[in-house]
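Lecture notes, unit on protein representations.

Consider one protein chain, 136 amino acids long.
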Amino acid sequence: MAIAHDIAVGQELPPLEKDLTQRHIDAYSGVRTRSIHTDEAWARQKGFRTTLAQGMMSTAYVSEMMTRLLGAGFIKGGTMAVAFVKPVYAGDRLTVRGVVKEVRPEKDGTRVVVEVWCENQHRQKTAVGSASGLLA
């Protein structure tokens, strides 16, 4: 994996797209009754239109995007703070996006700070936050 060392503030990261099928959600959550993630009737009873993806699935995809950018520098020195602002449903297409907000020297190297967000197929943000890691 080639790591970009010419990272600049304002740079948009390549978007990462994920189709969230019920099968993916089941594999991530483990199939259980009375779960808004895997039991559609239960999810509807709780007021949702269908089952929801676990919020942590979105953070896993943000991690994937950051690892593509920084490799081991994200795995070893990465941080992430994300708020979930809208449900992600089975059948949604999630796009993870990021923009470099800061590149700063640190004791162990150069830290890259990225504003990150996930959006559904309607371009509605479902998660927002920031992630950072070190240039490897």
